Amino acid sequence: MSWGDHLNAQLVSKGVAKCALLGAADGAVWADSQSGLKPGESAALAKLFSNPASAFQTGVTVAGVKYLCTRASEDTIAARKEANGLFLVKSNKAIVLALHDESMAAGTCNAFAGKAADYFKGLGY
Predict the structure, then answer these.
(1) What's residue 8's pLDDT?
(2) Which interval of the chain is the signal sequence (predicted)?
């Protein structure tokens, strides 16, 4: 099963249409489903986990859009821009990026991203 297949099974099939799976070490894009990540953004997202609190000052940028950080811990970063938002959830070796719009509640997106990260932890990633 490819990383894209895993991403589809864990997030896309549940209604999270914009998502990606990144390598935690360097932000390498392992799989992407319409996230719109621009060059350099995935590495910057991975780097946020070296000092999660910095996301409050810098914000979180995905697809050229800067989101305001609302929560940051060693394994989860949440950010919003108006009715849209995103969650970055880190497993052992991967970062799940899940974006939502007004059609999905933030809590629902967060739950799906967390479950996906747990799934990848179970695979050793």
Answers:
(1) 87
(2) none
Please tell me the distance from the alpha carbon of residue 125 to that of residue 117, in angstroms, as a whole number.
Answer: 9
Q: What is the pLDDT of residue 113?
A: 96
Domains of the chain: 3-122 (3.30.450.30)
> Which string of DSSP letters, residue by residue, matches the chain?
--HHHHHHHHTGGGT--EEEEEETTT--EEEEEB--PPTTHHHHHHHHTTSTTHHHHH-EEETTEEEEEEEE-SSEEEEEETTEEEEEEE-SSEEEEEEE-TTS-HHHHHHHHHHHHHHHHHTT-
Cβ-Cβ contacts under 8 Å for 43 (sequence gap 6 or more)? 26, 27
The answer to whether the beta carbons of residues 21 and 33 sit under 8 Å apart is no
Structure confidence at residue 23 (pLDDT): 97
Q: Tell me which residue of 17, 19, 20, 16 sits closest to 28, measured CA to CA.
A: 20
Over residues 27-36, the pLDDT tens digits come to 999 999 999 9
pLDDT of residue 49: 97
